[in-house]
## 1
Amino acid sequence: MKSWWVRAILLAALVAIGIWGWGAVFPGPEKIIRKRLNAMAKAASFSSKEGLIAKAWNASMVADYFTENVQVALEGPGMQQTISGRAEVLQAVARARSALSSLSIEFPDIKVTLAPDRASAVVNVTARGKVSGERDPYLLELKMQMIKAKSDWLINQVETVKTLS
Amino acid sequence: MGAAKAHRTERAANRDFGMGTDAEAVRPPGWLQRVLIGRNPKRTLVRILILVVVSTVLFKYVLQPIRVEGGSMLPTYKDRSVHLVNRLAYFCHQPRRGDVVAIRLEAGEHVMYMKRIIGLPGETVEFRHGRLYIDGRRMNEPYLVFRCYWDHDPEPVGTNQVYVVGDNRTMPWDDHVKGRGSLDRVVGKVIL
């Protein structure tokens, strides 16, 4: 009786490890999108210690997460910005890096809704930004449209969602 | 002779089942064992499991802990202070004016807005010289400490919405996050 319990627990553990391993080796689109957005947030963040070359390199890295003709419309308390195309994204990122001494961006919540053809997705993101010297963090709720290009998921559209209208 | 044989057999059986001899059985557990896992490890394990389950259910579905970031609710709720959200507060009744609530965003609940309800469904919210007017009637707000100079035209609140704002209204109107939020986004009432 006791050995059956042990076997059942071992079997359940093996199944759990198998499912986890399968997910780790062959991640689904939702997981890939989450990982990609978190990587973008990391690339978009910078500290005051960052050198000039690193700044330029990381700014170009951020632009790589967008499509050529991306449309970005950001609106928040005391802030409004519209960006068209990857080149403008690169400029905006470079401007932010020269204007601010440090910026920390993170996406604490990411909700992915895949299209039926699994080639595009609507992603709701909670974005939190902290600028050095400012007490309150910036909080934005974003709605992104991402499309699958070859093996990568690229951001094609970004707009601000007003939680409180 | 027979009694001695029986005694040996019992001691052997005890050893087989890991029970030890009488002398070993009465030996009290060491202080380290008592501190770490108690006198009865099985009972301790059951207690830990119950504690984990109860804590998970309690702090995930009933009383959700939150940490304040920013000064929007000053001086009522200070920056970096920790509070609890009662998720069952509006199980039996609708939110009331003056309640401080947590409002979730579309993507999830790791980050939420913490605001005070000033306008209820179907009402009209207006600010004149920093004073709040609901449906044209001036409202008393005892929780306000800082002066406010907002002026804002009457704004209707939808039938499925509440109007929320922070207690710190010292900043300009456009710099303060406030407005109408859907009732289904209200996670619960902030307590403690």
## 2
Amino acid sequence: MAALLDPQLLRRLEALALRVRRAVSGQIGGERRSTARGRSVEFADFRSYSPGDDFRLIDWNAYARLDRFMLRLFVAEQELPLSIFVDLSGSMDWGRPNKALTARRLAGAIAYVALTSLDRVRLTVFADGPTSGGAPYRGRHAVADLFSRLQSFPAGGPTDYSRLVWPIGKQRPGMTVLISDGLGESSIDPAIAALGRARQEGAVLQLLAPQEIAPDWTGDARLKDSETGLEREFTSTPVTQAAYLEKLAARTQEIERAAHRRGLRFARLSTDQPIDDMVLRTLRQLSLLS
Amino acid sequence: MNFLAPAAAVLGLTLPAIVALYFLRIRRPTRIVPALNLWPDQIRDRQANVPWQRLRFSWLLLLQLLAAALLVAAAVQPVLSAGTSLARHSVVLLDVSASMQARDVQPSRLDEAKRQVGEIIDQMGPLDRMTLIAVGSVPRVVTSVVGDRESLRRAVSATGAGNGPADLSAALTLASGLIRPGDDAHAYLFSDGIVGPIRTDSANALPFQVDYRRIGVSGENVGLTSLVVRTGAQSRAAHLHLQNFGQQARSFSLEWRADGKLVDVLKLTLAGGQAQDLVLPVPTDATLVSAHIDPGDVFALDDTVVAVARAPRAFRVLLVTSGNVFLQQALSLRSDFEVDVVAPPDYKSSAQYALSIFDRYSPTTFPSGPFIVIASPAGSPLAGGPPIGIGRVRATDAGDPLLTNVDLQDVHIARSQDLNASKFGRTLITSLQTPLVLVRDEPFRQALFGFDLHDSDLPLRVAFPILVQNLSEWILPPSVPSHSFHPDEAVTIVPATGATSVTVVRPDGSRRSLAGSSVATFRDTGLMGLYTVEQAVSGKVEKSWFTVNLFSEQTSQLKPIERLTLPPSTNTTAAHAARRSELEIWPWIALVALSVVVVEWLAFHRGL
């Protein structure tokens, strides 16, 4: 745990909470406003008493005025189901700082915020297919376990976003954070579309290394794809670098449009950005955390 | 084109070396990238390695080969050979004399010369300059130190031939004056060599070497070199001299005309070098007679000659003397003189005389017109100092036209007035002691003898009638000159007494007006043929004539001179001239190579 996130950062993260735009419905009680009525301090409505109702909820003041038994209804506070999908494909195991490492730390930080808010966290890592990060985590005591699992998955293999459609589709409505570089051979669009269909709100976080954002080399090289292992001879010149950057920008724009179309937030992050800055500033600006 | 460093051509091996580098494959370092599909499929080989591969088209390869080729070209230091034979300043002396109109080379000698001048203009380098001088009877600078080849071509093209002789001496003097000390100059003379003799004053060393380019090939020509109308006791006749200047016999017809009407046609045959004199009849009422050779030959200027057949207009001359038989006899030789002799006491006025001669007599008032005063009495305005003994008599200028054929070698004069202090005019004949004969042009042509003819043996010498003839023709030119003038020769026209206007009608009909009050020199005699002088006197027009003919055996000779003796040159830089006129162009090539390298660099960085 200590290797993944700094304790000082963890303390600062405890002050944060995930921010949802609409009420969610969890399975067990929590600190989130739920679509269901339940026990909380927040008044929701009145209704006539029916035999069998909890007489503790009878509003006696209303009985005195109306001579009828009225029942006070309160908003039920339930947990927030948070799903974190972390791309650990071969392309993520690249860059200085390493994108996979940064993705683990970012996922750990978001998960920590959720767990300390009594939200339920489901972790899924993926490359050419999804791998469950174990049973859903809930409560502060699950943090160590979650961090441990995060660090246990090796990075490698090609990216196949279409394999995420099924695990995303079976989720209950809630929040999902997808962390990926979006650079696989396949398109990320099916996965984002599945998020929309599963009534997920959340964010798509594109994580890139500074060396991809601004290539730091020129000249001749034999390029090798980190996922497929394919190789190609190449000469890097200002013109070819401009063409690369143009394609990268187009790919980023494509992901951003897909995310916004499904009501998801989007941010492109660079791994040279400090993790606390990434979480405390960027994600708050993104209204993912508050 | 020459090369100053041909050994540097070895550097040309860099070209195949560059190509070889492109044949070789590149050893490329492997770079792992997150997504290969983001990188464009672009590849260029620039580094050497094995194994060999097929040569692929590359703009960079082309640019590098071009840059290398240009650098090799600059390294061998090419120099343009254009202008290698030219000095920095070329002086072209173009003969435009009459003989250059000969058509023994087509279309004419002058056109051939102009063509050759054009070749020199073509050889001029960008820093070369040319001065073009037309060598005629009066040399003329056509263009001076011009580098624009188009202007030079236009100037050469516009230069036409004249009918006069070529004064090469004056042309060389003129050209020398245009050369500054230290100039790298070289002169080219385009001529047939038929030029006047080189005078001593221009035979001094020239500041340039003269390259004589002979123009013309043949001397085959039959020419009419003299036509004179003589009036005898009974009739008038024309004396015609013609000559075959060539080597081959030639048959032709001679057409003899009077006032344009055909009088006679003679069939003649002249052997090579043969000359013939003909006496031809002149009709009494004819004004102009002409002879013409048919068919013409390569030189047309001497195929037609003209002469005035009219008797000259008479001049009234007054001789005031107490008796001078020598003078009377000498004056009577002028057939157009009507001499009235009066004794000094009978002298009243000279008003109606064209010329007055005062022998040992001085009138109270000298006439406002031409006169000759001989031994003016002491005390008179033109009298000199006391008589002094005279030693050897000599001419002030032996070349003076007034002394032509006048031999003063055996002339002795006992005594003469001292004319040292006289301001009458220039000295014609002089001695160690005092000037003897003075002449002046203004206001009228007049002469002053300081000695009495009787104190001298001059009247007994053959020189005397010749001197009187020369002086009288100078003072009063005959209305019909006894000879023909040459083209461009100055003709002195003395207006008749009372003439209000003098006009010269040229052979082409053009008219030239002269001042009617004084002696005029008419120089516009470039055309050959009959010139008519019209003078308005008392409301009437009096006509006189003169003719201009080639009449130059030297020109009609026509054979181009093989070798001209020209003055030596002080210019010793001719050997260096060729070297300096070479234009080194390697800096420009190197500049272009640098530009190509820059383009290659830009192309590389733009990924071409």
